[in-house]
């Protein structure tokens, strides 16, 4: 089989055979031999991936060839240090596996073959991950894992401070690797900035970033010196450089940096110069943008060859090393072929099973809360504040953080008094950066906390939405539930704020949330619902690892009255009742018309129902309360009871929630009269002009009458 070596392999084997041990050999650390084993296995896996692809047997060809010096980084750390790895950190993964007495080769091969027996993702993606190896799986989303790494390092120190259980050793160092092209991504910059900010303030953050710099992003060269200049532009971060073709230096530098971070609990960066072989991936024709001489010139920088030279200096034979590579290559090809015979997933249910497990009985038990004083009736804002207090009191692993939530108590006073009650270690202000806020949530959640981050306005979520989509929602999916990041993301949103506006403070678009598989979206309108549903979300995050989004209608925060001034019909008395995930509430008022709505739409619809009742029209109003999963059974039952259904949707007509409700009703066989009314397809302007595009009571009433007149 050695006859089909490609040019890179030919060069490696030939160069190894020319190596001769010196007269006086050098004593080598034990890590040298371990690095060699991991490096040649990683290289052989990458060639096997291309070989399988050529035979239409493999599914993933982004490899680690040229980056194998990261195996030495792994050997400079402990196998219990949590790791979030770049997709070219194959050498690291195999070295970490060997450290822990585990053979990682089959893990990678089964992943390339999309086999259900692959131990972390079960065939859903080829990732580097394993619970026993403290390697948290990452997909190919560029730099999206860096904010989580900041969050994990933060969590270790916060667990130490608070004395709560942590998933990692309290003296651990978090390791996070990424590529040079990813350094330019806004997400990477946000994470590096957050790490520098922690260091600047003197707050502990035991985090080691590794920038694996191969000088090219797919086909676009990274300007020489750019990575170094960019990293050294943050003096708060300790930065060291090592070249991948100097294995002794890589091991020494990684070991020293890791020890420094472990002792000083401060962040650092290892700038690891590497090279990229075999193009970006199998579908990428490297000769389309690089010349043959350029490609071949990089062969001299081969980290595997460099480790071979290191071993020969210690007395090993070059011929022996070349034979070891060829033997490893042949063995791994056989194992790769065997991996392709393993079963792949066969049903939609099998694919989706890790997405959103539900344990309603456990959630119900956890969600209970002490009843409040009899007759105490609160606004929506007060009820949420009270529920947060209940949660923080009952669950010591909960944290609440965001912009202005601490001393100020939030822009609208919703979190007032919580920091003074529970301390600044549990209720605290963050950087004005939504990516960092969600990154802290991702990291603390996977470490054993139940975070409740706040996004100050719905429009601000769009700055960081991939942290929910690409990181939070996918973790269970790509780890088969081995890793979870249950959280409750409070978002202040929707329109109808009077005297304060513009689209950044009145955002009524939810499309970006509703198509994320597995997440829970809660959207209460009434104070008693808000308190109970918040407790349910925290319980679901804790019991099921659920990623929950808790959407709060700002315009109803301080509302007291429903129909007339002073009636105080919008106040509520939050008690210990439980609202299960996906349970609607029906305001029964008659059998002429069913209105389906939620949040501000509930307030508007109940007011319109009063008008219609004065005309002799009985209206039942269904409050969805949950937008994912939608309570379709209750909606269908109440819609069928009247045979006339109006969906009142405060989001935009195109892509709004109402579209989904109508589609689901029709799919379920509803054959009555059906209509919807929604806000206009517009951003929300400033001032009174907002009323021109947001759904109004008059529009709801007109739509209801038109439906009844059909």
Structure description:
The protein is of the alpha/beta class and 710 residues long. The protein has a 7-stranded mixed beta sheet, with helices on both faces. Helix 16 links the parallel strand 9 (398-402) and strand 10. The chain starts with 6 loop residues before the first helix and ends with a helix. 54% of the residues are buried. The mean pLDDT is 95.
> What kind of sheet is the major sheet?
7 strands, mixed
Shape estimate: elongated
Give the number of DSSP strands: 20
Proportion of helical residues: 40-55%
Distance between the amino and carboxyl termini? 77 Å
> What structural class results from the helix and strand content?
alpha/beta
> Which strand order does the major sheet show?
10-9-11-12-14-13-18
Q: What percentage of amino acids are in beta strands?
A: 5-15%
Number of helices: 25
Global Rg: 29 Å
Mean pLDDT level: 95
Unreliably modeled segments? none
What is this structure, in a nutshell?
Helices cover 40% and strands 14% of the residues. It has 710 residues and is α/β, with parallel strands linked by helices.
List the helices and strands and how they pair.
Layout lengths: L6 H11 L12 H25 L15 H6 L7 E2 L5 H10 L5 H8 L22 E2 L9 H17 L11 E6 L6 H15 L6 E7 L2 E2 L2 E2 L4 H7 L5 E6 L3 H18 L3 E6 L18 H6 L5 H11 L4 H22 L8 H5 L7 H8 L12 H15 L3 E5 L15 H5 L4 E3 L4 H13 L3 E6 L9 H8 L2 H5 L7 E7 L17 H4 L5 E3 L4 H18 L2 E7 L31 E3 L5 E5 L2 H15 L4 E5 L2 E3 L3 H11 L1 E9 L4 H11 L5 E7 L17 H12 L2
Parallel strand pairs: 1-2, 1-3, 3-4, 4-8, 7-8, 9-10, 9-11, 11-12, 12-14, 13-14, 16-17, 16-19, 19-20
Antiparallel strand pairs: 5-6, 13-18, 15-17
Helix pairs in contact: 1-12, 2-4, 2-5, 2-11, 2-12, 5-12, 6-7, 6-17, 14-21, 15-21, 17-18, 22-25
């Amino acid at each position: 089989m050695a006859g089909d070596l490609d040019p890179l392999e030919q060069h490696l084997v030939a160069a190894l055979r020319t190596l001769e041990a010196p007269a006086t050999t050098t004593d080598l650390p034990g890590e040298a031999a371990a690095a060699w084993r991991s490096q040649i296995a990683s290289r052989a896996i990458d060639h096997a991936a291309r070989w399988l692809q050529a035979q239409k047997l493999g599914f993933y060809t982004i490899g680690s060839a040229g980056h194998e010096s990261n195996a030495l980084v792994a050997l400079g750390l402990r196998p219990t240090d949590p790791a979030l790895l770049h997709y070219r950190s194959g050498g690291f993964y195999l070295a970490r596996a060997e450290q822990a007495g585990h053979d990682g080769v089959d893990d990678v091969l089964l992943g390339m073959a999309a086999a259900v027996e692959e131990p972390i993702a079960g065939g859903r993606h080829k990732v580097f991950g394993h619970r026993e190896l403290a390697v948290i799986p990452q997909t190919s989303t560029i730099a999206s894992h860096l904010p989580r790494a900041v969050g994990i390092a933060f969590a270790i120190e916060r667990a130490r401070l608070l004395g709560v259980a942590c998933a990692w050793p309290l003296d651990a160092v978090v390791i996070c690797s990424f590529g040079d092209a990813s350094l330019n991504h806004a997400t990477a910059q946000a994470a590096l900035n957050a790490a520098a900010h922690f260091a600047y303030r003197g707050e502990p953050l035991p985090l080691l970033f590794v920038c694996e710099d191969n000088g090219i992003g797919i086909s676009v060269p990274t300007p020489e010196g750019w990575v170094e200049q960019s990293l050294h532009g943050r003096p708060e971060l300790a930065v060291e450089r090592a070249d991948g073709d100097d294995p002794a230096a890589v091991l020494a530098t990684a070991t020293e940096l890791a020890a420094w971070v472990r002792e000083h609990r401060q962040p650092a960066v290892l700038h690891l110069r590497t090279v990229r072989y075999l193009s970006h991936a199998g579908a990428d024709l490297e000769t389309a943008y690089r010349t043959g001489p350029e490609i071949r010139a990089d062969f001299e920088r081969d980290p595997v060859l460099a480790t071979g030279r290191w071993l020969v200096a210690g007395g090993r034979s070059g011929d022996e090393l070349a034979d070891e590579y060829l033997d490893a290559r042949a063995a791994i090809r056989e194992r790769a072929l065997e991996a392709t015979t393993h079963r792949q997933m066969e049903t939609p249910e099998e694919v989706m099973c890790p997405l959103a497990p539900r344990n309603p009985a456990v959630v119900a038990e956890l969600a209970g809360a002490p009843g409040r004083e009899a007759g105490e009736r609160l606004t929506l804002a007060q009820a949420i504040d009270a529920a947060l207090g209940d949660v923080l009191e009952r669950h010591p692993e909960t944290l609440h953080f965001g912009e202005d939530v601490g001393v100020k108590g939030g822009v609208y006073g919703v979190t007032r008094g919580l920091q003074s009650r529970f301390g600044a270690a549990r209720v605290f202000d963050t950087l004005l950066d939504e990516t960092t806020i969600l990154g802290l949530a991702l990291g603390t959640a996977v470490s054993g906390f139940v975070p409740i981050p706040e996004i100050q306005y719905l429009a601000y979520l769009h700055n960081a939405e991939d942290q929910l989509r690409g990181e939070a929602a996918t973790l269970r999916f790509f780890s088969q539930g081995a890793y979870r990041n249950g959280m409750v993301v409070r978002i202040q949103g929707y329109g109808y704020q009077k005297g304060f506006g513009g689209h950044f403070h009145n955002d009524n678009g939810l499309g970006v949330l509703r198509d994320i598989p597995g997440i829970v979206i809660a959207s209460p309108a009434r104070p008693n619902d808000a308190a109970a549903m918040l407790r349910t979300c925290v319980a679901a995050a804790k019991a099921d690892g659920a990623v929950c989004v808790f959407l709060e209608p700002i315009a109803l925060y301080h509302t007291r009255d429903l129909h007339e001034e002073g009636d105080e019909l919008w106040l509520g008395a939050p008690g210990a009742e439980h609202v299960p995930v996906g349970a609607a509430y029906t305001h029964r008022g008659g059998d002429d018309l069913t209105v389906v709505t939620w949040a501000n739409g509930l307030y508007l619809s109940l007011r319109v129902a009063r008008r219609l009742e004065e005309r002799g029209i009985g209206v039942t109003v269904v409050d969805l309360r949950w937008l994912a999963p939608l309570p379709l059974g209750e909606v269908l039952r109440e819609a069928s009871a009247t045979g006339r259904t109006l969906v009142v949707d405060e989001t935009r007509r195109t892509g709004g929630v109402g579209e989904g409700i109508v589609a689901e009703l029709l799919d379920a066989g509803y054959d009555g009269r059906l209509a919807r009314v929604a806000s206009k397809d517009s951003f929300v302007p400033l001032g009174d002009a907002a009323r021109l595009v947001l759904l109004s009571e008059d529009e709801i009433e007109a739509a209801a009458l038109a439906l009844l007149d059909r």
